[in-house]
UniProtKB/TrEMBL annotation:
Keyword Zinc-finger among record annotations: no
Similarity comment: Belongs to the cytochrome P450 family.
Cofactor(s) annotated in UniProt: heme
Record's protein name: Cytochrome P450 714C2-like
Originating species: Coffea canephora
SUPFAM superfamilies given in the database record: Cytochrome P450
Length: 351
């Protein structure tokens, strides 16, 4: 067995555990509600993806990982408020109340991460992402302070890149399946036939073609990351447009993903069948579909994210049926990711 396969099995195992926890929590809520429940699903999806990323990152130091991630989430909220609230260059250096709160959180996060690192170094080897970061730091020729910063920054990056994006993707996909019961039924039939009452594993999710098509379509219509950006490292020219060195070029993902020139006249419609022959069959050129970005800086966690989405959604479909609740108000909003402005409310029944 190669190292890659060992890691894949380990990751699939921990996604399965987090999924079972999520599904059991819905079963309890539905039982308490007498067979049906009106659930705002956003927070449940966040707990699921937070659980996966804490375990993937911090292995057996997982409960301390959760503490760190709780503070990172608070920091992320504070940061998005600060950016939206002022917009004044340099304002993030002023000792305002919210800045002081953010600085205190930063300090706590650093202390907690370095505490886990110390425990880990004393306890020995584990196969999690923290271990990979530590080994990356060890093989560099950075100074002690820079090593600490490297470790703290990488742990923060993994969390910020992998938590909200996966949670919001699952939320949008479930909303679309609730609004399209024919597709919900098709994917459920596929999941039930392939899994036969078992928890889906890597082989099973590979066989789930309809589910893959629906996830692709959901990431097309609601890509969590709205902009893929690149800085011009030298003066460049695209056609007639001159781009001076240092300028950031933003590609608007939603615009690319819904252009009728690229996707055809039904570009705003939920139609997973367009992915029946993969991404190349769905649009004019495959690099116009970029939910995970493109090129050498493409998302490092895309395989993990797809495993998470496939195991979670197929398990939910095998255990529950659901429709849109009358409480739901459709209002996609751009915060750090494109998320449902008022959350997603589903009426969920146990099968
Ligand atoms: C559905 C979920 C996810 C979506 C839609 C997503 C999307 C993206 C996008 C659009 C980028 C920028 C790529 C570019 O500039 O070309 C990115 C980068 C990145 N993502 Fe994800 N991501 C997801 C989940 C994850 C997960 C679960 C992890 C980690 C466990 C992760 C780790 C990263 C990292 C480390 C980068 C930076 C790569 C680099 O700069 O070299 N992502 N992601």
């Amino acid at each position: 067995m190669t190292i890659c396969m060992i890691y894949r099995e380990w990751l699939v195992g921990l996604v399965q555990e987090s999924t079972v926890t999520m599904v059991n929590s819905w079963k309890s809520i539905i039982e308490a509600g007498g067979g049906i429940a009106d659930i705002k699903i956003d927070q449940h999806m966040r707990s699921f993806s937070g659980d996966v990323i804490s375990r993937a990152c911090f292995g057996s130091n997982y409960s301390k990982g959760e503490e760190i991630f709780k503070r990172l989430r608070a920091l992320q909220e504070a940061a998005s408020k600060r950016v939206l609230a002022t917009g004044i260059p340099g304002a993030r250096h002023l000792p305002t109340k919210s800045n002081r709160e953010a600085w205190a959180l930063e300090k706590e996060i650093k202390t907690l991460i370095l505490q886990v690192v110390k425990e880990r170094t004393e306890a020995g080897y584990e196969k999690d992402l923290l271990q990979m970061v530590l080994e990356g730091a060890k093989s560099s020729d950075l100074s002690r302070d820079d090593i600490d910063r490297f470790i703290v920054d990488n742990c923060k990056n993994i969390y910020l890149a992998g938590y909200e994006t996966t949670a919001v993707s699952a939320t949008w996909c479930l909303m679309l399946l609730a609004a399209n019961p024919d597709w919900q039924e098709r994917i459920r039939a596929e999941a039930v036939e392939i899994c036969r009452g078992q928890i889906p594993d890597a082989d099973m999710i590979r066989k789930m073609k309809q589910l893959t098509m629906a996830i692709n379509e959901s990431l097309r219509l609601y890509p969590p990351v709205s902009v893929v950006s690149r800085e011009a490292l030298k003066d460049m020219k695209f056609g007639d447009i001159k781009i001076p060195q240092g300028v950031n070029v933003w590609t608007l993902v939603t615009t690319l993903h819904t252009d009728p020139e690229i996707w055809g006249p039904d570009s705003y419609k939920f139609n997973p069948d367009r992915f029946a022959n993969g991404i190349t069959g769905a649009c004019k050129l495959p690099h116009l579909y970029v939910p995970f970005g493109v090129g050498p800086r493409v998302c490092l966690g895309q395989n993990l994210a797809l495993v998470e989405l496939k195991i979670l959604i197929s398990m939910i479909l095998a255990n529950f049926s659901f429709s849109i609740s009358p409480r739901y108000k459709h209002s996609p909003a751009l915060h750090l990711v494109i998320e449902p402005g008022n959350g997603v409310d589903l009426l969920v029944k146990k099968l």
